[in-house]
Design a protein that fits this description.
The complex is a heterodimer of chains A (357) and B (408).
Chain A lengths: L13 H6 L4 H9 L10 H20 L10 H18 L2 H20 L3 H11 L4 E3 L7 E4 H5 L16 E2 L2 E4 L1 H21 L9 H22 L6 H6 L3 H11 L6 H13 L4 H7 L8 H11 L14 H6 L17 H18 L1
Antiparallel strand pairs in A: 1-2, 2-4, 3-4
Helix pairs in contact in A: 3-4, 3-5, 3-9, 4-8, 4-9, 5-8, 6-8, 13-14
Chain B lengths: L1 H16 L14 E4 L6 E5 L4 H11 L3 E5 L1 E3 L7 H4 L1 E4 L1 E6 L8 H4 L1 E4 L5 E3 L14 E4 L4 H21 L7 E5 L4 E6 L9 H12 L25 H16 L2 H7 L3 H9 L1 H9 L13 H15 L5 H5 L4 E3 L13 E3 L1 H4 L15 E6 L5 E2 L2 E2 L5 E6 H10 L4 E5 L1
Antiparallel strand pairs in B: 1-2, 1-3, 3-12, 4-5, 6-11, 7-8, 7-9, 10-11, 10-13, 14-17, 14-18, 15-16
Helix pairs in contact in B: 7-10, 7-11
The chains are: A mainly alpha (357), B alpha+beta (408).
C-alpha cells in the first residue's frame, strides 16, 4: 500500500494521505484500489459509506468536519472521494459549498501544526503551484502571483495583491498564509469535483439511501430558511445587509435610485423570495415610476422573460466598485463577500434562535 | 448614403489588404461579432473554422466593425453562454482617452445632458452634475495629444506587467483600437484559466484599489511611513505621488484633497523641510507626523489616484467580452485597428493607422467643425472644407451634421 509514496518525499507518511485525502498521492491510492460501486455494498463498503455520510452530516450540522484517525485510517482516506460522489449525485450547489467550506476548514486547522515542508509538498505536488522557499526575512515562501490570486480569501484587504510584496511576478508570503491559501484551494477543488457531471448506472440502493438521507437533512434546513419570508418586516429588516437596507431607505424616502442600485435591490429581493408583484410595488415610490416598464424589467430579472436567466445581485466587490457599498471598513460585514451571504447567515442564526426558544 | 460611401471605401480597402486581418490564436474557438453599415444591431455568435473563412466573410460583407471574443469556447457559435462552454480567456486591458483627463479635451470634446439640457465643453462626466441623469450625449474627437496621453498610460501598464507581475515581452502585444485608445492582450498560458475574481485582483493592483496604510509602514497614532522614493511597486509609487503633490501643492489643491485648515497650514509652512526630508535616502516622513491621521489618509488616497493606471476595469473582468479584431477598420473613424509590439508602441503616431491615401480629398460641409482631428487642423469653424479622405471619413463616421459635397 505504500507503493504510491515511493517517488515522493520520504517524510510523507500514509497518515498524511489520510489527513489530506485531496492530494495527488491520496487520489492515486484511491484509484489503485479500483473500487467499484458494487463494492460499496460489501461490509467494508458500508463502513466507508457511513463515514462518507458522517463527513457531510458534520458539515451540515456543525459546519466542520473532524479528522477521525482512531478508526481504520484506510476507511478515513477512502471515505473522502465517496463523500464527493454522494454530493455529485445530489447536485445541490449550496450543499456542495457548505461541505467544501467545512472540509477545507478541517484541512486548514491541521496545516497550522505542520512544518513548511509538508505545505510545500501539497502546494507543489498536488496544486502544481510555482512556488519556492524565500530568502527574505519575515517571509517563508515566494509563490507566483497567478497561483496566489486564484486562491486568496475574498473578504479581506490584507490579502489583496496591492498590499503584498511582489518581486518579478512572485508574491512573498508567510507559512501561515500559505496554509490559508491551500485551504482555499481545497475548497475550490471540492466544489469543482462535485460539480463535474457523473453518469453512473446501477447505483446500489444503499448509496441512494445515504444520498436521500443527506438530501432530507439539508432540505430540513432550507425549509427553515424559507419560513423566514413570512416573518414580520421589522424583524426581516434587521437581517438585511447594510447596503440593501440603505437602498430600501432611499427608496422609501422617494429618492431616485440609479440603474445599478435598482438592479441590486430588485435582484436581492427576488433572490430571498419576494414575488414580482411585491418588488414592483416597492418601486412605486420612485419619481419616474412606470408600472408597465417596471414590471417588465423585474420579470426579466426574475428569469421570466428573455434569456430566462434568474439574476443574482452584485457581489460585494462589485457593490464597492459601483459605489453602493456602505460598509467599506467592513465593520458590519466582516467576512462577507456577497449581500445574500449576509442575509442567509443572519437568517440562519435567526432560525436557530427561534428553534432554541 | 453617407454610410454607403464609407462602406464603398472599406470594400476597396479590404480588396487589397484582406490578408492583413490578424488571425487570433485558436480562431476556431472564438466567437465573432459584427456591426454593419445598414443595420443598427450587432450580429453575434458567429464562428470561423480558419482565418480564410473569416477573411472571405470580411471581404464579402464589409462590416463597419469587427470583434472577436477574448474567450475560447467549445461551441463559439452557440446562442447562450451555457451552450457555448467557456474554456478560458486572454487577459485584456483597455486604455481609452475617454477615462483620462487631457487638456486637449477642452478643444475638441463636448457633452449634452439629454434630460436637463445642460451642455459643456471638455471631458464628459458619467452623470449630469446638475440633474444626475446618466443620459448624456457625447461628442468626442481625437488629436495627437490624446493619443500621446493614451500611449503614456499604456506604457505605464506594460511596465507594471513586465517589471512587477513578471510577464515577458513575448507574452503581450498591443492593439491601437482604431479610435481613442489601446488594448493590451496577455496570452501567457497560465493566465488564460484564471477566473473573474483573480482578474479583478489584477485590475485592483493596477488601479491601487484596497491599498492599506499598513502596507506603507504606517503603524497608527504616530503618523510615519517607511516608504522610499526609489522603491519598486506601490510603496514607491505612493512615495513619488506624495512627493509630487507636496512639492507642487497650493492651498486650493490641499483643500480639494480634503485636508483640514490646520493640516493645510502646517504643510504650507513646512513645505521645504518636508520635501528635503523625503528626498533623503531612505526617504524620511517624520515631518508629516504633525498632520492628522485623516489628513494623511486623504493625501495617500490622492497619491494613489494620481499614480493609478487608467484602465477600464470592466473590460478586464468580463471574461465573455468581444474586442476589436486587429487588421480591420474601425467603422466610426476609418482608422486601422493596428497590432503593435511593445517596442513599436513608443514610436506609434496616429497616422500609422491611416489607410486612405493622402492624395484623395473630399469636400464636406458642416455647421460646425472641431478644431482638429488627429494631426489635421481645420481652417474654419464651420462651412465647406476640402479635407484629406482620411479626415473626411472620420468626420462622416462621427457626426451626423456632416454632408459630402464631392469626392475628388
Amino acid at each position: 500500500m505504500r507503493g504510491v509514496l515511493k517517488n515522493s518525499d520520504k517524510s510523507i507518511t500514509f497518515y498524511d494521505l489520510v489527513k489530506y485525502p485531496f492530494t495527488k498521492e491520496a487520489i492515486e491510492y484511491f484509484k489503485a484500489k479500483s473500487l467499484t460501486l458494487k463494492d460499496l455494498e460489501s461490509d467494508i463498503g458500508k463502513v466507508i459509506l457511513n463515514r462518507s455520510y458522517e463527513r457531510i452530516h458534520e458539515a451540515i450540522s456543525q459546519r466542520k468536519v473532524t479528522t477521525n484517525l482512531s478508526e481504520d485510517p484506510e476507511v478515513e482516506l477512502l471515505s473522502f472521494p465517496i463523500s464527493l460522489l454522494l454530493l455529485s449525485l445530489l447536485e445541490n450547489k449550496s450543499l456542495i459549498y457548505r461541505y467544501a467550506v467545512a472540509e477545507s476548514k478541517r484541512v486548514g486547522e491541521l496545516l497550522k501544526n505542520e512544518d513548511l515542508g509538508k505545505l510545500m509538498w501539497i502546494a507543489k505536488n498536488t496544486f502544481e503551484w510555482r512556488i519556492s522557499l524565500a530568502e527574505e526575512e519575515d517571509y517563508s515562501v515566494m509563490i507566483h502571483f497567478i497561483d496566489y490570486i486564484s486562491h486568496i480569501p475574498q473578504s479581506s484587504k490584507e490579502w489583496k495583491l496591492v498590499n503584498k510584496k511582489l518581486v518579478k511576478g512572485y508574491v512573498l508570503i508567510r507559512k501561515s498564509e500559505l496554509a490559508r491559501i491551500i485551504e482555499e484551494a481545497v475548497k475550490k477543488y471540492i466544489v469543482k469535483k462535485c460539480n463535474e457531471r457523473v453518469t453512473l448506472t446501477d447505483i446500489p440502493n444503499i448509496v441512494i439511501a445515504f444520498a436521500e438521507r443527506i438530501a432530507r437533512e439539508w432540505g430540513q434546513r432550507s425549509k427553515e430558511f424559507k419560513s423566514l419570508r413570512v416573518i414580520p418586516e421589522k424583524v426581516r429588516n434587521g437581517i438585511y445587509p447594510p447596503c440593501i437596507a440603505k437602498l430600501l431607505d432611499d427608496l422609501k424616502s422617494g429618492k431616485n435610485l440609479p440603474h445599478a442600485a435598482r438592479f441590486a435591490l430588485a435582484t436581492f429581493l427576488l433572490n430571498i423570495g419576494f414575488k414580482v408583484d411585491e418588488v414592483v410595488s416597492l418601486f412605486k415610490t420612485t419619481p419616474d415610476f412606470n408600472e408597465r416598464i417596471a414590471r417588465y424589467q423585474v420579470e426579466h430579472l426574475a428569469g421570466l422573460r428573455g434569456s430566462r436567466v434568474k439574476y443574482s445581485p452584485y457581489k460585494c466587490s462589485n457593490m464597492r466598485s459601483l459605489g453602493l457599498c456602505v460598509d467599506l471598513e467592513r465593520k458590519i460585514c466582516k467576512g462577507i463577500h456577497h449581500p445574500l451571504q449576509y442575509y442567509f447567515r443572519m437568517a440562519e442564526s435567526e432560525v436557530h434562535e427561534k428553534a432554541t426558544d | 448614403m453617407r454610410r454607403q460611401l464609407i462602406k464603398a471605401f472599406f470594400k476597396k480597402y479590404y480588396k487589397n489588404h484582406i490578408n492583413e486581418i490578424v488571425e487570433p490564436p485558436e480562431i476556431e474557438k472564438r466567437e465573432f461579432g459584427f456591426m454593419f453599415f445598414d443595420k443598427q444591431i450587432m450580429l453575434r455568435h458567429i464562428s470561423f473554422k480558419n482565418v480564410f473563412e473569416l477573411r472571405n466573410y470580411m471581404g464579402e460583407k464589409v462590416p463597419a466593425h469587427a470583434y472577436y471574443s477574448s474567450a475560447y469556447y467549445v461551441n463559439p457559435s452557440a446562442p447562450t453562454m451555457d451552450e457555448k462552454g467557456w474554456l478560458s480567456a486572454d487577459l485584456v486591458f483597455d486604455i481609452d482617452v475617454d477615462h483620462i483627463e487631457t487638456p486637449c479635451k477642452k478643444d475638441h470634446d463636448s457633452w449634452k445632458c439629454l434630460n436637463c439640457g445642460l451642455s459643456e465643453k471638455g471631458m464628459s462626466p458619467s452623470k449630469c452634475p446638475r440633474c444626475g441623469s446618466e443620459r448624456i450625449e457625447r461628442s468626442t474627437w481625437i488629436c495627437s495629444s490624446c493619443i500621446e496621453a493614451a500611449k503614456d498610460e499604456t506604457l505605464k501598464v506594460c511596465d507594471i506587467l513586465l517589471d512587477e507581475l513578471g510577464f515577458s515581452n513575448k507574452d503581450l502585444y498591443l492593439v491601437f483600437s482604431g479610435h481613442r485608445g489601446f488594448h493590451i492582450h496577455v496570452e501567457e498560458e497560465k493566465v488564460l484559466n484564471i477566473d473573474q475574481n483573480a482578474r479583478r485582483e489584477i485590475v485592483d493592483y493596477l488601479l491601487g484599489i484596497g491599498l492599506d496604510l499598513s502596507t506603507l509602514g504606517y503603524l497608527g497614532r504616530k503618523v510615519v511611513l517607511d516608504i522610499d522614493l526609489r522603491e519598486e511597486g506601490w510603496r514607491g509609487r505612493v512615495a513619488r505621488g506624495l512627493y509630487d503633490i507636496l512639492s507642487s501643492c497650493d492651498r486650493n489643491l490641499l483643500k480639494e484633497i480634503g485636508l483640514r485648515g490646520k493640516d493645510i497650514k502646517y504643510i504650507l509652512n513646512n513645505k521645504d523641510k518636508i520635501i528635503s526630508e523625503i528626498e533623503r535616502s531612505p526617504s524620511n516622513w517624520i515631518a508629516l507626523s504633525n498632520i492628522s491621521v485623516k489628513g494623511l489618509e486623504r493625501l495617500v488616497n490622492y497619491a494613489v489616484k494620481l499614480m493609478a493606471c487608467k484602465v477600464d476595469e470592466r473590460v478586464t473582468i468580463d471574461i465573455k467580452r468581444l474586442i476589436r479584431l486587429p487588421g480591420t477598420l474601425h467603422g466610426k473613424t476609418g482608422f486601422k485597428v493596428l497590432k503593435l509590439s511593445y517596442n513599436e508602441l513608443e514610436s506609434f503616431v496616429i497616422s500609422d493607422a491611416f489607410v486612405f491615401d493622402d492624395e484623395s480629398h473630399i469636400v464636406v460641409r458642416s455647421r460646425k467643425f472641431p478644431k482638429r482631428i488627429a494631426n489635421y487642423v481645420f481652417s474654419r469653424n464651420g462651412g465647406i472644407e476640402d479635407v484629406p479622405l482620411v479626415i473626411g471619413i472620420y468626420l462622416l463616421g462621427n457626426s451626423k451634421e456632416v454632408e459630402v459635397i464631392r469626392v475628388k
